[in-house]
Amino acid sequence: MNTSSTHTTVMLHQAVNALLASDAPHKDGIASVYVDATFGRGGHSRLILSRLNRQSQLIAFDKDPDAVAAAAEVGVDPRFSIRHQGFGHLNDLPVSSVAGVLFDLGVSSPQLDNPARGFGFRANGPLDMRMDSTTGQTVAQWLAYASVNQILEVIHDYGEERFAGPIAKAIVARRQAHGPLENTTDLARLVADAVKTREPGKHPATRTFQAFRIFINAELSNLQYALEAALRVLQPGGQLVVISFHSLEDRIAKQFIARHSRTTFDRRLPQAAVQATPVMPLRALGKHRPCADEVAANPRSRSAIMRVAQRTHAAILGGQG
Q1: Per-residue pLDDT tens over the stretch 221-232
Q2: Of 213, 171, 163, 218, whose CA–CA distance to 190 is shortest?
Q3: How far apart are the C-alpha atoms of 118 and 11, rounded to whole Å?
Q4: Which terminus, N or C, of the chain has the lesser number of Cβ atoms within 10 Å?
Q5: Mean pLDDT of 261-275
Q6: What is the CATH number of domain 12-109+219-311?
Q7: What is the per-residue pLDDT across 63-93, written as a single tens digit (0 to 9) for each?
Q8: Whose CA is closest to 35, among 58, 52, 63?
Q9: What phi, psi does 228 have (nearest 5°)?
Q10: Averaged pLDDT for residues 147-152
């Protein structure tokens, strides 16, 4: 585990304030369960625990074995437990048993700054990029056999990169001439040579690295599944908080909340029919961004968007609310 890098938790107080919006966490005698679905280095979890009463619990999830190891730094607290699992395992929890779920998506600073994990390109490392380094194929293994069209599609869809075609062709040409790419420096250099124009202040390989990371970890499909699981386990009045760092994640969170909170009806119907329109299972509570002071202190927070919703009393498919 690399301990040389520190991680500054993004939107720390905003997220925890939204998660613990009710009075329940502070009152002794009320036992509530909260979930930190992406433990990371535990910034959100520590603040949550400092505000929970003695009867409540915090369950954390993380696929990264380094993050699970870092959870030992929380200390012995009978209210806290961590699971070496992705947040899709939220579905393992009982229906309507959780008072709040927090997602802090994306990659953490220690992951980016540890060359051995292969997430970044500022230092040379293996082309890995797996969130869970104990299982699954690496980016290097996938690039060793993927076709031009497969690589192009991933870079275009998950990186929103307009030069996806030239990059994909360059990767396959390199493989045919010199063997597969195996390290981050070679990939970053190859992408920089293939990209015709550069975005100001951004390395030309940024979008490609993002795309490969999202693809190899199935991040978007896992998020969609996990949000449905969160809705299922949230109890009435429970809070859903989602912090995202790029448009693809935020679009999923935005559309999920909208789909489950927007009540539509035909205004031409009689008033009685309008009043009988079923209540949706979520109530959208808004979108938030980090303040200017936080962005100045931690530039990695500048792209963060936090969306908040509350579980209503409406029933959902697969459980009772």
Answers
A1: 999 999 999 999
A2: 171
A3: 26
A4: N
A5: 57
A6: 3.40.50.150
A7: 999 999 989 888 789 999 999 999 999 999 9
A8: 58
A9: -65, -40
A10: 98
Give pLDDT tens digits for 85-142.
999 999 999 999 999 999 999 888 888 889 999 999 888 999 999 999 999 999 999 9
- Tell me the Ramachandran region of residue 226: left when phi exceeds 0, alpha when psi lies from -120 to 50, beta otherwise: alpha
Crossing angle of helices 148-159 and 206-216, rounded to 10°: 100
The token duo for 262 is 């927007």
Listed by start position, the domains of the chain span 12-109+219-311, 134-216
Within 10 A of 267 (CB to CB), how many other CB atoms are there?
6
pLDDT digits (tens, 9 = 90+) for 176-188: 999 999 999 999 9
Tokens of 320: 């009772």
CA 188 to each of CA 11, 100, 169, 197: distance values in angstroms, whole numbers, following the listed order: 30, 40, 15, 15
Beta partners for residue 308, in sequence order: 241, 286
- Euclidean distance between CA atoms 203 and 188, whole angstroms: 9
> With respect to CATH, is domain 134-216 assigned 1.10.150.170?
yes
Six-digit token pair at 183? 């390290």
Confidence category of residue 156, pLDDT binned at 50, 70, 90: very high
What predicted TM-score, i.e. pTM, was given to this entire model? 0.88
Which two tokens mark 214? 């999202």
Helix, coil or strand: residue 35: strand
First vs last C-alpha separation in the chain:
41
Asked if 101 and 35 count as a contact pair (C-beta separation under 8 A), the reply is yes
Strand 305-311 and strand 282-288: the pairing is antiparallel
**Spatial contact of 210 and 150, defined as CB atoms under 8 Å apart:** no
CB atoms within 10 A of CB 289: 15
